[in-house]
Amino acid sequence: MSPGEGGNAPLSFIKDAFRHVWDKLTNCLRVQEMFPTGYDQNQDTNKIETAFYTIRSDKDSHFTSDLSNGAGDNENLTGLASNKARIKRIKCQLLAGGARAFDIWVYKKDSFQNADLDLDSFCGMTPFVVADAKQSNSGSYPQYYYDSGALDMPYEDLDGTYELHIQLVWRDAVAYDPTDPGTDKFIVEVEYEPAA
User: Fold this and answer.
1) What pLDDT sits at residue 136?
2) pLDDT tens readout for residues 27-40
3) How confident is the model at residue 181 (pLDDT cuts 50, 70, 90)?
4) 182-191 per-position pLDDT tens digit
5) Taking the alpha carbons of 80, 85, 91, 92 in that order, is the dihedral positive or negative?
6) Are 148 and 91 in contact (CB under 8 A)?
7) What distance in Å separates the CA atoms of residue 44 and residue 192, rounded to the nearest whole number?
8) Contact 166, 105 (CB under 8 A)
């Protein structure tokens, strides 16, 4: 069929279809300009969702060394979702004869501290004093609870092993003795947000 015999009919149909789609798209864009999603504050709030993860020690296999005032016990807690994270909260439970003082130190490598400052892998520290200890029911539940509150500590496992390298440093005059059955036990739970 030659162009003079109506050969442009398919081309005309394509042009009409394009105009129709363009008009619909233009109308849609105009509506979005009139009602941008930014005006819906509830929708904006829902978009800012953060996934928090926790990693927790075990009372029978972690922090099992006797500790006197100033001594520390190192643990590599496995199971991080990412080698980079932001630590958001540290919570501890202590089963002891009374409230005690201690620190939680975080390191970036399983080599922990080093006398050479270039090799030391210190990341951050949170102190807990005796006054921080709380009991929910001293008659039935003898453990003491400690809560750091909100934190924002950048962390990176430089070993690349998806571990959180934590040190419990005892700061109390009364020694920590987990080897005596039924006495001192300790658990730390760290809330964190994976980072890219």
Assistant:
1) 85
2) 655 544 444 454 45
3) low
4) 679 999 999 9
5) positive
6) yes
7) 23
8) yes
H-helix segments, the chain: 9-34, 41-47
Architecture of domain 53-194: Sandwich (2.60)
62-76 burial, b if ≥16 CB within 10 A, otherwise e?
Answer: bbebebeeeebbbbb
Length of the chain: 196
Cβ atoms of 56 and 196 within 8 Å: the answer is no
DSSP 67: B
Do 179 and 51 meet the contact criterion of CB atoms below 8 Å apart? Answer: no
Structure tokens at 192: 């964190």
**Tokens standing for 109?**
């490598």
pLDDT tens, residue by residue, 156-175? 999 999 999 999 999 999 99
Residue in this structure with the two tokens 């005796």, named with its chain if needed: 130
In the structure encoding, which two tokens stand for residue 104, read together? 């939680």
